[in-house]
Amino acid sequence: ANVNMTDTDRITALMLASQNGHEACVCMLLHNGANVNMTDTDCITALMLASLNGHELCVCMLVHNEANVNTTNTWGRTALMLASQKGHGACVRTLLHNGANVNMTDTDRITALMLASLNGHELCVCMLVHNEANVNTTNTWGRTALMLASQKGHGACVRTLLHNGANVNMTDTDRITALMLASQNGHEACVCMLLH
Question: For the chain, does the N or the C end have fewer beta carbons within 10 angstroms?
Fold first, then answer.
């Protein structure tokens, strides 16, 4: 069988096995010449699918078979961004240890740190800041990771960001601060941290 055959969306057997965490299949496919860096019609790779779905062993196998960790999909998202967004800490750690660029941005200038902060994944936030993620980077709308965490009331993320140099007084394109966002949404614990 042709190991690199694709369907109408350019999806391969390796992508499907990686997406669903079938480690033995991933291993066999790689051993039989599966192209680890092939992309589907949205420029999504097997590594991105494994990272998005939290299949850390598949991520390990793919990176050890020379998967490009910094490839971006159609929306400019990397495997690290996808793992951070979903809070898959083991995948985030593996990607960081294998050269993932912590400060890459997508088409809206969103970073892995912003995605982890927005979704309340404090362990991922910790790993990203300890791997030199820029805590004060802004997205297209001028929002920082701190603003996104404050808006959603993710106190643990707010605390971690503040302890790692997040600028509490930065404003977005509408001159809105993290404190305003936390206050607007009734996140009392975040308001308290931002004030002190």
Answer: N
